[in-house]
Amino acid sequence: MNKEQIIEALKTIVQPYSEETTALAHIDEKTDFINDLKINSANLVDIILDIEEKFNIEIDNDSMAKMLNVKATTEIIAQKLEARDGQ
Fold this sequence. Notes:
With 87 residues, this protein is mostly helical.
């Protein structure tokens, strides 16, 4: 799964939690979940759970703490997918 595919999947996951339709339409690596999409910390946890379910991965607390923007999130998802598929 490449970066663009992960970002597209993220857009679908994040959509129910953000009312910032313009920011959602232009989501890219620079998009910040809190500042750009106005997602609160409780909803960030829900998004992480949705990501785990969608990608069939487990995200540890250290990784979760870093997942504040699209770039960091896509990198962590890619790492977890590689680790999962490499086993």
